[in-house]
Amino acid sequence: MNLDLREYSVRTDLAVESKEIAENVHGKPLSGLNEQIEEQDGIKITRLDVTTPAVSEQIGKIMGHYITIEVPGLRTQDSDLQERVSAAFSKEFGLFLQKIGIQSAAKVLIVGLGNWNVTPDALGPLVVENVLVTRHYFELAPDQVSPGYREVSAIAPGVLGITGIESSEVVQGIVERTKPDLIIAIDALASRSLERVNTTIQIADIGIHPGSGIGNKRRGLTKEILGIPCIAIGVPTVCYASTIVNNVFDLMKSHFNEEIGSEENVQTKQIMGLLNDLSEGERLGLVKEVLEPLGHDLIVTPKEIDEFIEDIANVIASGLNLALHDAVDPDNVASYTH
Predict the structure, then answer these.
(1) pLDDT tens by residue, 147-180
(2) What homologous superfamily is domain 15-238+305-336 in, according to CATH?
């Protein structure tokens, strides 16, 4: 049986994962990709700048700036850790705004993409519920607005299947009417790694495409379409079943090597058989060849998604409140969320 593997690739919306895949394929670090990594107290921050068209094509990501905050401990629902992550996110987001030239007085529209009726897709609407909106005060009583607040509005436009209207059309109408200087779009993403689901936050200045996490390619929210900068904030909340099965092969291989005490040993090769010699793309192609005709390439999310999605939405909302409003008290940021 000959498989055409060109259509098969590991589905991920995270720039760090795309970089990892590309480096595994090429067997060396990529040129044209600037990377900085910081890790402290269980919080890992990776800053990636995709600076050339060549590396953009290699990793499959648009040229731009990406920040990834990884916190495996978020699954423990540690409130102190969540506060530290909010503070770290706020600091990184504030520096990100400066890096791309957003002024402190810029008017902001926050767009919470997703379907509030589907828990893994409810991140955007949940963040919108908890951000501090102020535009109505600036419109109705500007002389009573205290220093340290900026004009912020927010909208959760729903999804095409509910409204019959593309999210980008809704947002474009709001932009034309209210004239914000910046859009912050929040959406759920897909990851190639279960460890990163609900524990990772990505910030990027490339805009966002609603539904991209599950393979839907539609009109997006970008500077080219809307005429103003659009920052994307995303959290992976789902994995594809085929991706999980594919990863299991690597986990099995590592487990056998650890148990037997050496890498690439004969016993591991005997256990894994032909799968041991297949590349990641070839294994994924084989898995999909088996699953897709049966309709079993499911989109998977952890069973604790209800608690996880609430926690990560509050982390992002608190971080945005801190980053966007100088008057927000860092020691009492929770009081600004609903």
Answers:
(1) 999 999 999 998 888 889 989 999 999 999 999 9
(2) HybD-like (3.40.50.1450)
